[in-house]
């Protein structure tokens, strides 16, 4: 559909990103979906999106690579500008700081934080030119309150919150809304190995969250017409951080 809105999901082939992509497709968005290397997962998600009646294009590249990011999305953004950009890409390389290798630090910062710069470098100007759009950044409860064994991950996710708040001050007058969604412990592949018996007592709702519960908040931020939410961090964590 020519008049259909477009959502770009960075890191959209699995887990929370996949749930966001499907939810926005059901809300009438065409989807641009980026992923790092799992072709099978991306193809499966693409088919699920297209089954809703929306169109889906996939882009395979490493967002930590500035040149690869520009080559993958630069030409596409010349012909069509996303109405919504969801930055969901992220990796975790957990270790206690005293034992953390430089590679564990660098890989997390490069993907989670530097990747955000790489994406914004390509997409922000086209979105500003259109004088409309919504940017939703997926951070984490670990970026709000910190987590032992995740100094690198917490630093990257806290950095995204700071970046979002500053960006919101820069682009608000151009009708670009910028917000952060900070999930807590969500049932995905990334959290499969966590010790539930130790974590559940810390969560007032007494359960892990579902990816669809994160997606519903992102969907609201992308679709609600009467929206005066800008530069905010919305926690989806069952009360883990209050």
Order of helices and strands: EHEHEHHEHEHHEHHE
CATH architect. name: 3-Layer(aba) Sandwich
Structural class comes to alpha/beta
The tally of structural domains comes to 1
Measured distance between first and last alpha carbons: 42 Å
Largest sheet: spatial strand order = 3-2-1-4-5-6-7
CATH topology group:
Rossmann fold
How would a textbook summarize the main sheet? 7 strands, parallel
- The proportion of residues in beta strands is 15-25%
Question: What is the residue-mean pLDDT, rounded to a whole number?
Answer: 95
Q: How many beta-strand runs?
A: 7
Q: Which percent bin holds the helix content?
A: 40-55%
CATH class: Alpha Beta
Give unreliable regions as ranges. Answer: none
The radius of gyration is 17 Å
- Give me the number of helical elements: 9
Shape: globular
Q: Quick one: CATH superfamily?
A: NAD(P)-binding Rossmann-like Domain
Structure description:
By secondary structure, the chain is of the alpha/beta class. It has a single domain, classed as NAD(P)-binding Rossmann-like Domain (Rossmann fold, 3-Layer(aba) Sandwich), CATH 3.40.50. It contains nine helices and seven strands; from the N terminus they run E-H-E-H-E-H-H-E-H-E-H-H-E-H-H-E. A seven-stranded parallel β-sheet has the order 3-2-1-4-5-6-7, with helices on both faces. Helix 5 links the parallel strand 4 (84-87) and strand 5. Helix 1 (15-26) runs parallel beside helix 2. The protein is globular, with a radius of gyration of 17 Å. 41% of the residues are buried.
């Amino acid at each position: 559909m020519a008049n259909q809105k477009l959502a770009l999901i960075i890191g959209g082939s699995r887990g929370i990103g996949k749930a966001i992509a499907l939810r926005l497709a059901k809300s009438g968005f065409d989807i641009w979906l980026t992923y790092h290397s799992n072709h099978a997962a991306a193809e499966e998600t693409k088919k699920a999106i297209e089954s809703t009646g929306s169109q889906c294009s996939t882009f395979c590249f490493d967002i930590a690579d500035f040149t690869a990011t520009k080559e993958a999305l630069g030409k596409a953004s010349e012909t069509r500008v996303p109405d919504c950009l969801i930055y969901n890409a992220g990796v975790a390389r957990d270790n206690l700081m005293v034992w953390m290798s430089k590679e564990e630090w660098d890989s997390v910062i490069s993907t989670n934080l530097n990747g955000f710069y790489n994406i914004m470098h390509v997409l922000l100007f086209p979105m500003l030119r259109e004088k409309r759009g919504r940017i939703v950044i997926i951070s984490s409860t670990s970026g709000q309150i910190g987590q032992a064994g995740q100094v690198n991950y917490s630093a990257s996710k806290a950095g995204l919150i700071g970046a979002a708040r500053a960006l919101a001050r820069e682009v608000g007058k151009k009708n670009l809304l910028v917000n952060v969604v900070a999930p807590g412990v969500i049932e995905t592949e990334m959290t499969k190995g966590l010790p539930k018996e130790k974590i559940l007592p810390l969560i007032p709702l007494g359960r892990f969250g579902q990816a669809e519960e994160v997606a519903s908040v992102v969907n609201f931020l992308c679709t609600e017409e009467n929206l005066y939410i800008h530069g905010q961090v919305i926690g989806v964590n069952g009360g883990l951080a209050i």
